[in-house]
Design goal:
mainly alpha, single chain, 2 strands, Four Helix Bundle (Hemerythrin (Met), subunit A), 5 helices, about 170 residues, two-stranded antiparallel ribbon
């Protein structure tokens, strides 16, 4: 598990450099703003072999990376709040879809899954409130990293994989 975590959870720098390092190819986001670090590297371990849910997980991963890059490195060049709003909407839609798939398949632990989903939505709203309040990068970073690790490790790699296993 530790090896997997090291593979998928990048150890981002405190702030993304304004220009990528010479040896590290930069990733691009909207408006051609570049950043060198990803918060999460997509990995085949995330795959549940459920097409639409896998696509939704990829989109959530991409939005988390964009949010991190926007918040930690753009300082006004991009709009982290717009990314945060899109992430919130995407997660709510994904959770509703995932819950309907679980209900259709009579998956055990559906109610537990729903509770966890609601907690993620609540936590993301709290992060948004912190961002809107003008909190500093160093104060928001631990919250964003904790949220991301819980979402990836506790939810996708554990709960969602258990769900997918049951549906096979």
């Amino acid at each position: 598990m530790r090896r997997l975590l090291a593979r998928v959870l990048a150890e981002p720098a405190a702030k993304a450099p304004s220009k990528p390092a010479a040896k590290t190819p930069a990733k691009k986001t909207r408006a051609n703003v570049t950043y060198a670090a990803e918060l999460i590297r997509w990995d085949s371990a995330f795959t549940l072999d459920h097409g639409r849910i896998d696509e939704e997980h990829r989109k959530i991963t991409r939005l988390l990376n964009m949010l991190y890059a926007d918040w930690m490195g753009s300082h006004g060049k991009l709009s982290p709040m717009r990314v945060l709003d899109e992430l919130n909407t995407t997660m709510i839609r994904h959770f509703l879809h995932e819950e309907s798939v679980m209900a259709e398949n009579k998956c055990p632990h559906l109610n537990e899954h729903k509770v966890v989903h609601r907690l993620f939505v609540r936590d993301l709203k709290e992060i948004g409130a912190m961002m809107r309040s003008g909190i500093t990068d160093t104060e928001i970073k631990p919250q964003l990293l904790t949220f991301t690790r819980r979402l990836v490790v506790d939810h996708v790699l554990t709960m969602d994989h258990d769900m997918a296993q049951y549906m096979r």
